[in-house]
Design brief:
Strand content: 25-35%
Biased composition (Basic and acidic residues): 245-257
Number of strands: 16
Oligomer: single chain
Structural class: alpha/beta
Shape: globular
Order of helices and strands: EHEHEEHEHHEHHEHEHEEEEHEEEEH
Strand order of the largest sheet: 3-4-2-5-1-6-7-8
Keywords: Chaperone, Hydrolase, Nucleotide-binding
Catalytic activity: GTP + H2O = GDP + phosphate + H(+)
Protein name: GTP-binding protein
Family: Belongs to the SIMIBI class G3E GTPase family. ZNG1 subfamily.
Helix content: 25-40%
Length: 368
């Protein structure tokens, strides 16, 4: 029996998760979706969609979707749903987990790797994060959970873009790409998103493609050296050499946040969630790399949100693909390198205050 795909829907309070979820549930897609509400507040979806006073944990909906609210362990709920599905008591093709607005999606994602029974039944498809364009800067400035949600995302949807200027929207997109250059960013209006952009994104697949926003890479290249550029330093005021206007979010601003800068799409906040890309033309020594990554994950695992790479390894003609969430890392052999393509390793790390210099020099030392 094939694994049941799971989508984790996250986003800060008021970002429109429930609106998006209602749309997905009410659309005539012919799929039976189980929704798990990982919600501890009063405001949950049943009151709006289900119109029922039932205290039962699992509610079957008219279009065949089912809804359940968990107030205890996610693992137990997933096991309960799987058991009921096996017995034919509930029918569903996939699961969407809606997290609380202040939740860190990390532990939710880890549940699918840590528990054998869960891992044998379910497969994480992707983490989808909604960002409220109007309030995002303030939320990202003040709440680490909001920054983590961006760092974990496989797909980012911007809601309420009609309430902000085009310049402010571009500045926000630029900020989000520095935190997570892997996730496509798309504006959505009132949760109106084609289903194909929410489901079956395969964000956790070990595939041989590493999508990194090309502008992010181009910008790194502008700095005249091969390594990704270091966002570790906050400059107050404008750094005109690089066409950047960088602000430390704690320093005095020359102009109000969200106000247009002379080059508004380069208004850069020094967020603790950052990404960097590592590239190398020389092959990796497999034993050295395994030791180094093992040590790094041991020390910095809690601060490593998502990381992924397509690697050129000595001793194999095939690509090696690896990815991880926090301390959990997996790797696999991908397809053979095509004779015409350049054999280079490319890795992206997204995390909280990761020591780029240590990671870079350590990775350099693992090269053949």
């Amino acid at each position: 029996m094939s694994l049941i795909p799971v989508t984790i829907l996250t986003g800060f309070l008021g970002s429109g998760k429930t609106t998006l979820l209602k749309r997905v549930l009410s659309e005539a897609h012919g799929q039976k979706i189980a929704v798990i509400e990982n919600e501890f507040g009063e405001e949950n979806i049943d009151s709006d969609i289900l119109k029922t006073e039932s205290k039962e944990q699992i509610v079957q909906m008219s279009n065949g979707c089912i809804c359940c609210t968990i107030r205890e362990d996610l693992r137990e709920t997933l096991q309960l749903l799987a058991a009921k599905r096996r017995k034919g008591l509930v029918v569903f093709d996939r699961i969407i987990i809606e997290t609380t607005g202040v939740a860190d999606p990390g532990p939710v994602a880890q549940t699918f790797f840590m528990d054998d029974e869960v891992a044998e039944t379910y497969l994480i498809d992707s983490i989808v994060t909604l960002v409220d364009a109007k309030h995002a800067d303030q939320q990202l400035d003040t709440r680490q959970e909001a920054r983590r949600q961006v760092g974990f995302a496989d797909q980012i949807f911007l809601s309420k873009t009609d309430l902000v200027s085009a310049e402010a929207q571009q500045a926000l997109i630029h900020r989000l790409k520095h935190m997570n250059p892997r996730a496509p960013i798309q504006a959505v209006h009132f949760g109106a998103v084609p289903l194909a952009q929410v489901l079956d994104l395969r964000g956790f697949n070990l595939n041989a493609k590493l999508d990194i926003d090309p502008d992010f890479l181009k910008e790194e290249g502008d700095h005249g050296h091969d390594h990704g550029h270091d966002h570790g330093h906050a400059h107050d005021g404008c750094d005109h050499d690089h066409g950047h206007c960088e602000h430390d979010s704690h320093a005095g601003h020359d102009h109000a946040p969200g106000e247009a800068c002379n080059h508004p799409h380069h208004h850069h906040h020094d967020d603790d969630v950052k990404s960097f890309v590592y590239r190398a033309d020389r092959a990796f020594d497999p034993a050295k790399l395994e030791d180094f990554l093992g040590a790094i994950v041991n020390i910095y695992g809690p601060k490593m949100l998502r990381y992924k790479g397509v690697l050129n390894m000595q001793g194999t003609e095939r690509k090696v693909i690896f990815q991880g969430v926090h301390q959990l890392m997996g790797s696999d052999l991908g397809p053979a390198w095509d004779g015409a393509e350049k054999r280079e390793s490319k890795m992206v790390f997204i995390g909280i205050d990761l020591p780029q210099d240590i990671l870079r020099s350590g990775l350099d030392q693992c090269l053949v």
